[in-house]
Amino acid sequence: MLDFITSALATLLVVSDPIFMSALFLGLTADMSEEHRREVALRGSIIAFCILLVAGLGGAKLLALLGISLSAFRIAGGLLLLSSAAEMVFDRRAQRREDLAKTAITVDHIRNIAAFPLAIPLMAGPGAITAMILLAGRAEGDWGKLAALYGVAAAVMLACYVCFRIAVPISKTLGITGRAVISRLLGIILAALAVQFVIDGVFALTR
Q1: pTM for this prediction
Q2: 3-state SS string over the chain?
């Protein structure tokens, strides 16, 4: 159970990246009042958690309906996470997310910003959704592990909310160099976790 919780926490923290998200949140809400920032932070975190919850609860059933084995999804998901890790290490994810953020500001600056792009695809993007489905599959129907997974997801979204609320001091403290170093370190960790997902999928297929 401890290994499962640790793996889930590390995976979701890395793919959600609360510290990096705080920098984007600051850019998205640059011309908002403190009250509006608080509202966007809270709504975005709740929406992102609901998306991850649905992915964890129904993702495996959807795969079954489509005739896709969990092992195959583990391999595919691991490769997708590996791609996300490469984007982090080589700093391609930052540019892509910033482009999405700028687009959203142009389209609708206030009302929908919590849902798009903050909740999806920035907080609960393809990587996080894939991770939730894979981790739920790893629980193998154990309700204790599933409850722990949803608790971890809630904790990670809470961490994102807290980082949003203290985005200004975090940005000033880390600076551009600090954010770049942390993003690359997290990318390496995510790459290792992605490879582990692929290994688990191949092992399950060959049993």
Answers
A1: 0.71
A2: CHHHHHHHHHHHHHHHCHHHHHHHHHHHCCCCCHHHHHHHHHHHHHHHHHHHHHHHHHHHHHHHHHCCCHHHHHHHHHHHHHHHHHHHHCCHHHHHHHHHHHHHHHHCCCCCCHHHHHHHHHHCCHHHHHHHHHHHHHHCCCHHHHHHHHHHHHHHHHHHHHHHHCHHHHHHHHHHHHHHHHHHHHHHHHHHHHHHHHHHHHHHHHC
